[in-house]
Amino acid sequence: MIVIGTSLGGLQALQQILRDLPAGFTTPIAAVQHRHRSSQSILAQHLQRSAKVRVRDAENGMPIEKGTLYLAPADYHLMVDDGRFLLSTEDLVRYSRPSIDVLFESAADAYRENLLGIVLTGANDDGSRGAKAIKRRGGTLIVQDPDEAESPVMPLAAIAAAPVDMVMKLAEIGPYLTGCCHLESSEKHG
């Protein structure tokens, strides 16, 4: 599984990554984009325009399926448990709900060394505690190059908190994921 956390400037960053993923990309992705609790639920529709994979809002109890990017709904924490998603309205974490840390920590517990976490642009340190959890459980951690992030605070906090596997330019992340993660065989061979 892949988990992505982003905040300020994250919409454009997510669009770039989605544009770069091929239609045969099957590894499931869960993403937290910080947004206001009363924001409309059109983010998935907006991102779908840039994507060849399916994009949808996660729902409580929803099974995790291949070839889909799941978004944390506004004002809900998104967690991974036993092949499905759970939603929570527990307290804000680092002033946020949804919280990147909550998603990253639960996914690290569930997927351990089979988890790839990505921290993108953002203006706070949400995700740094989750980045540590990913590394403690054997996962891989990628951070967007702070020099190109719209807001470098979140990438810098992750770099300070955990041993990062790679610091990458945004344009490198999608092609890297395509090379290292699962594609349908028809995409790999033709």
Describe the protein's architecture and organization.
With 190 residues, the chain is of the alpha/beta class. It is 33% helix and 21% strand. It contains 7 helices and 9 strands; from the N terminus they run βαβαββββαβαβαβαα. The protein has helices at residues 10-20, 43-48, 100-111, 128-136, 153-161, 170-180, 185-188; strands at residues 2-6, 29-33, 54-57, 68-71, 77-81, 84-88, 116-119, 140-144, 166-168. The strands form 2 sheets. The chain has a 7-stranded parallel β-sheet, with helices on both faces. Helix 1 crosses helix 6, helix 3 runs parallel beside helix 4 (128-136) and helix 4 runs parallel beside helix 5 (153-161). It starts with a strand and ends with a helix. The relative contact order is 0.20. Mean pLDDT is 92; it is low at 185-190.
Percent helix range: 25-40%
The 3D shape can be described as globular
Taking all residues together, what is the mean pLDDT? 92
* Helix and strand run: EHEHEEEEHEHEHEHH
Strand order of the largest sheet: 3-4-2-1-7-8-9
| Number of beta-strand segments | 9
Largest sheet: 7 strands, parallel
Low-confidence stretches: 185-190
Radius of gyration: 15 Å
Strand content: 15-25%
Number of helices: 7
Q: What class do helices, strands and sheet pairing give? A: alpha/beta
Intertermini distance: 24 Å
